[in-house]
């Protein structure tokens, strides 16, 4: 852990030292700054009050403002505003607004502006907008373009898209949230497995299919698209009896109390023993009828593809549209027609 925090502490001390020594000075235009690490540079101790068109520091640089290109082997620390390009091996830190492009191996931090920021780990801007791309986390204010993160995006207002490997959070979205979990006070379109929005739909339901697998599923989404996440139990099997599923659905047709839903779901049965496997991918087409505003029943056919290596899995389906085996008959693959029926309660 010390190896991780020592570089961060160094950057913090540089920022603190530069600010404390220059609060009483007016920013001046220096043109260029070349150095090793503050204060060992051509601008010497005046660096934190200087505005540069070009900065190059082998380790870390400090300046009042940047209006062109700032390059550092480890970190750039700018007290004021930046325009143009800031590139550092580890981090870029801008005290005020950043406009242009920020590239960092680990993290970019800035107060605001419309910069396009790219980092290996995180981009943090309390009042920032523009495009944020990070390997782990983006945290911004009003995002007018795109947030892309390997794990999480957080913003107040999004006018574009939030795309994350796991979680998107925003207050208001005028565009798209795409991730495993999407959360917003209000959202345009949410595409994920779990979608939470005040103007969206959420329901908890029970389904049963042709294999007597009973599933408790949570469906959540918007006016058209919704996500599906379920767990369940197969009452016929002795080994492979614990069920799971996840997928995406769409309301294709809405007419008064009637709806036609289509779902694409990946799931399976698990024994948690040995190498048993039963995987199932299904396309469901299900007419639904709302008995009350909150209570809905549905049923319809499904086209299914399975992959199993268990005796129970092979015996669950008698008639296939097409099937084949591999590994000397040990693994079975097949397409067949089934059904799904159920009921759900919206809340």
Poorly predicted residue ranges: 1-26
Strand order of the largest sheet: 23-24-25-26-27-28-29-31
Structural class, by secondary structure, is mainly beta
| Approximate shape | elongated
How many individual domains?
A: 2
Mean pLDDT: 91
Count all strands and give the number. 31
State which percent range the strand residues make up: over 45%
Tell me the major beta sheet: 8 strands, antiparallel, barrel
Helix count equals 2
Task: Report Rg.
Answer: 28 Å
Q: Gap between N and C termini, in Å?
A: 45 Å
Q: Please identify the oligomeric state.
A: single chain
Q: Can you give the helix content as a percent range?
A: under 10%
Describe this structure in words.
With 347 residues, the protein is mainly beta. The chain folds into two domains: 2-197; 201-346, Porin (Beta Barrel). It is 7% helix and 65% strand. It is built from two helices and 31 strands. The protein has helices at 2-20, 311-315; strands at residues 28-37, 40-41, 50-63, 65-72, 75-78, 82-88, 91-104, 107-113, 116-119, 122-124, 127-128, 131-134, 137-139, 142-143, 146-149, 152-158, 161-164, 167-173, 176-178, 181-186, 189-191, 194-197, 201-209, 213-221, 225-234, 242-255, 258-270, 278-290, 295-308, 322-326, 331-346. The strands form two sheets. An eight-stranded antiparallel barrel has the order 23-24-25-26-27-28-29-31. The protein has a five-stranded parallel beta barrel with strand order 3-4-6-7-5. The longest helix is centred in the first third of the chain and has 19 residues, at 2-20. It is elongated.
């Amino acid at each position: 852990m010390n190896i991780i925090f020592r570089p961060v502490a160094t950057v913090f001390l540089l920022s603190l030292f530069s600010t404390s020594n220059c609060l009483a000075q007016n920013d001046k235009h220096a043109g260029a700054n070349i150095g090793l690490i503050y204060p060992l540079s051509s601008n010497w101790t005046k660096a934190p009050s200087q505005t540069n068109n070009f900065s190059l520091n082998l380790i870390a640089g400090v300046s009042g403002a940047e209006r062109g290109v700032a390059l550092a082997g480890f970190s750039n620390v700018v007290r004021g505003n930046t325009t143009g390009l800031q590139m550092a091996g580890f981090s870029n830190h801008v005290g005020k607004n950043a406009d242009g492009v920020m590239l960092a191996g680990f993290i970019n931090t800035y107060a605001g502006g419309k910069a396009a920021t790219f980092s290996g780990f995180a981009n943090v801007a309390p009042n920032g907008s523009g495009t944020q791309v990070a390997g782990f986390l983006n945290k911004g204010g009003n995002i007018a373009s795109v947030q892309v993160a390997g794990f999480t995006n957080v913003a107040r207002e999004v006018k574009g898209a939030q795309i994350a490997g796991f979680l998107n959070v925003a207050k208001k979205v005028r565009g798209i949230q795409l991730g495993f979990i999407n959360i917003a006070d209000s959202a345009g379109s949410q595409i994920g497995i779990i979608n939470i929005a005040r103007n969206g739909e959420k329901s908890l339901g029970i389904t049963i299919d042709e294999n007597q697998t009973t599933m408790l599923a949570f469906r959540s989404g918007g006016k058209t698209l919704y996500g599906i996440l379920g767990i369940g139990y197969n009452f016929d099997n002795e080994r492979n009896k614990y069920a799971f599923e996840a997928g995406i659905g769409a309301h294709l047709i809405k007419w008064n109390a009637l709806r036609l839903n289509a779902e694409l779901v990946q799931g399976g049965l698990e024994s948690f023993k040995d190498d048993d496997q039963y995987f199932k991918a299904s396309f469901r087409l299900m007419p639904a009828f709302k008995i009350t505003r909150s209570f809905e029943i549905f049923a319809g056919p499904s086209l299914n593809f399975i992959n199993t290596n268990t005796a129970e899995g092979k015996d669950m389906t008698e008639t296939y549209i097409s099937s084949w085996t591999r590994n000397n008959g040990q693994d079975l693959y097949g397409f067949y027609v089934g059904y799904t029926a159920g009921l759900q309660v919206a809340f």
